[in-house]
Amino acid sequence: MQNRKQIEKDINLIGSFKGLATAYEEISVSKMQRIRGKVLSARTFLDDLSIVFADVKGSYKNEIEKLIHNSKKGIFSFSNLNKNGKTIAVLLSANDKLYGDIGRKVYGFFIEDVKKSNPDIYIIGKVGREFYDSSEYKKEYKYMDFPDTNEARENFSQVLQILEGYQNVNVYYGQFVNVITQNPIVTNVSGTKELQNDIASQHKQVKFFFEPSLEEVLEIFETQIFSSLFRQALHESELSHVTSRIQQMEYALENIESSQKSLNKKRRLVIKRQESAKRLQRFAGISLWR
Q1: Where are the domains of the chain?
Q2: Eight-class DSSP state of 205
Q3: pLDDT band per the 50, 70, 90 thresholds, residue 49
Q4: Contact 26/188 with Cβ under 8 angstroms?
Q5: Could you write out the DSSP letters of every residue in 58-92?
Q6: Which of 33, 67, 244, 272 is most buried by its number of CB atoms within 10 A?
Q7: Residue 139: predicted pLDDT
Q8: Model pLDDT for residues 216-269, shown as the tens digit of each residue
Q9: Alpha-carbon torsion (245, 249, 255, 256), positive or negative
Q10: CB under 8 Å to 83, separation ≥6 — which residues?
């Protein structure tokens, strides 16, 4: 059995860990409460807006069908912007660890799709890059750190300019469901996936009157609305990571408290044995003087 000094050192050390875990949890709870309302309210609005995005692109169904018919590859672009006809998969991950298993879940979901469709790859966040670099799948990719501050997110124009050049932009991230559950999802922020599904299913398209023109309205959707949808994915990812950290810290605190109970029990046993040994020594000393 460990001696008393070593046990007390372990108790002090685990107490420090408990303080650190508690601080992480409190910071994460505060951050989650601050951003959850904004993210959830914006989610509903932007989900509906992405449907409108697809409807705008599909409003002139006959013209789009002509473009598909005239294209040998079946690729069409109803856009004023220069598109390269390619698909890019964007992985959103954290820069730091201690965010639970949501990062690994999102990466697993991402890499499974990437292996099937072989798109271009953009990784945002150090954890995602670490997962990818250690995997067997090897393909060149673009990378940047996840923007941890509002100022960094505002300076995101370079990334958006790159993504705007792609026909399809699929973003993989964790989505907040509740404090216990965060799920990996993929969102198409370029308004093309819904459009292709609508054409395939003969979905009735909404008809619009465009003012000043269809081209100018589409340009707004493919720049400003595209940017809003992508930034929402960033906020969603941040919320899922923060919430996952709360859960991770709860597990850590449970393990720490269990370890503290075990160590305190060992310390009591050691103290009891030491006191018993001292009593035996006193009795032995008394018997020698008689």
Answers
A1: 51-245
A2: P
A3: confident
A4: no
A5: TSSHHHHHHHHHH-TT------SS---S-EEEEEE
A6: 244
A7: 92
A8: 777 777 778 888 888 889 889 989 988 888 888 888 888 888 888 888 888 888
A9: positive
A10: 77, 165, 166, 167
DSSP 185: E
CA distances in angstroms from 91 to 106, 131, 153, 165, 232, listed in the order given: 8, 11, 16, 17, 14
For 29, half-sphere exposure in the C-beta direction (CA atoms, 13 angstrom radius) is 9
Phi, psi for 120 (deg, rounded to 5): -70, 160
Mean pLDDT over 146-162 rounds to 72
Closest by Cα among 51, 60, 100, 96 to 78? 60
In sequence order, what DSSP letters do the residues of 112-164 get, joined into one string?
HHHHHH--EEEEESHHHHHHHHTSS-----EEE----SHHHHHT-HHHHHHHH
For the chain, the 3-state helix, strand and coil shares in percent, each to the nearest 5, are: 65, 10, 25
Percent of the chain scoring above 90 in pLDDT: 20
In single-letter form, the type of residue at position 236 comes to E
- 187, β-bridge pairs: 171
**Tokens 């979905």 sit at which residue?**
203
Which residues have a Cβ under 8 Å from the Cβ of 265 and sit 6 or more positions away? none
Q: Which two tokens stand for residue 145?
A: 């750190």
Q: Look up the CATH superfamily of 51-245.
A: ATP synthase, F1 complex, gamma subunit (3.40.1380.10)
